[in-house]
Amino acid sequence: MGDRISRRVLDQIDRLRGRGASGLPVGAHDNPLRSEAEQSVVRFVFALFGVGIGWIAYTLAGAGDLPWTLWPYAGGYIAYSALCLLHVRQWPDFNRLRLVMTTLLDPLLVTTLLWAGGERTTPLVWTYFWFVTAQGVRYGTPWMLLSAGTTAAAVATLVWLEPGWRQHASYAVGIVLSLAAVAIFLSIANMRLSALQRRLIQMASHDPLTGVANRSMFYDLLMQAIWRCQRNHKRLAVLSFDLDGFKLVNDTHGHRAGDYVLKAFASRLAPTLRREDVFARIGGDEFVILLENISGPANVSRVSELILSTLASIEDFEGHAVAISASIGVATYPFLAMPDEVTPDHLLACADAAMYKAKSAGRSRTCVDVSAMLDDGELLAPVFPG
After folding, report:
1. Are residues 91 and 240 in the same domain?
2. Are residues 193 and 259 in the same domain?
3. What contacts 37, CB < 8 A, 6 or more positions away?
4. Would the N or C end of the chain have less CB density within 10 A of its end CB?
5. Collapsing DSSP states into helix, strand and coil, what is residue 62?
6. Cβ count within 10 A of residue 138
7. 309 lies in which domain range?
8. Could you report the per-residue pLDDT of 115-149, keeping only the tens digit for each?
């Protein structure tokens, strides 16, 4: 039961965090836009100062001047890094094509420096490992593997084209094997970190007893749903209800019986809801359900009937008869008397008011707030059983 509900909650977490838009896996950098900006700055600083530091190092070591043919390649890499920085600042939105191009060009451009400079530029080999590691840390395993594969192909091309590298082909093999080891290690680390991150997110966003979303998670998802309704001109409904008769079961048979009722209810109701619906426990026996993209009252009536029939199916606990029902209040959005900038608290307050009206009408009923609350607090809503 817990695993099935947890998967639904994690799907909703991924939807809330916008992973579908960037395509980045959990475990990659939390903010891909910041990653690209950071990477472009580091690349530019490396290109700008790396050449100068390299020239000073060779001069101090008495190795002579760097070959003049190397300077156009070094200048080209500086220009490339500057263009990347300007492009990210001008168009800061995450760009998959741009990330693919930089992942491919970084090792390939360094390879041209190694080819042009011969043995004098071999210290630049460390940048291969920098590129692979940076892609793995910033963007996750798929991007790291793309960088590692490109680098391995670049090294093979270097051995084929450059006589000095051809004479020391065993070094090139060692570099490729080292890159493979780094990629494997980081892949395992990413998988473990991803699993830990998902577990921590799940613990922070779901109810430990029933496995459904908690109050904080529900508020976040409801706010996202309100924004989508405003943007796409859709409708949503919030169902608020508590369990009638739950206190009697708890007082008569103990907390084990109460926990059993809550877990049984959640495990039986959750699979009957749509994948995009959000089911949450926000208090002791208080639950809420968010329905998006509703077309009319039939959507709400269907879920109300599911709630009541699910509770009716819980008939006993360890041979003791139990009778549980629910009073359900419903608030819809948008509606005429509410401002556009409605908050989750406002919608939940309307749903709660409708729920108490249902209780006063005889319980096991649904009260739908089809419009809003008037200034004097009167609720315009029909009351119907089931």
Report:
1. no
2. no
3. 88, 89, 92
4. C
5. coil
6. 20
7. 215-385
8. 877 777 777 788 888 888 888 888 888 889 999 99
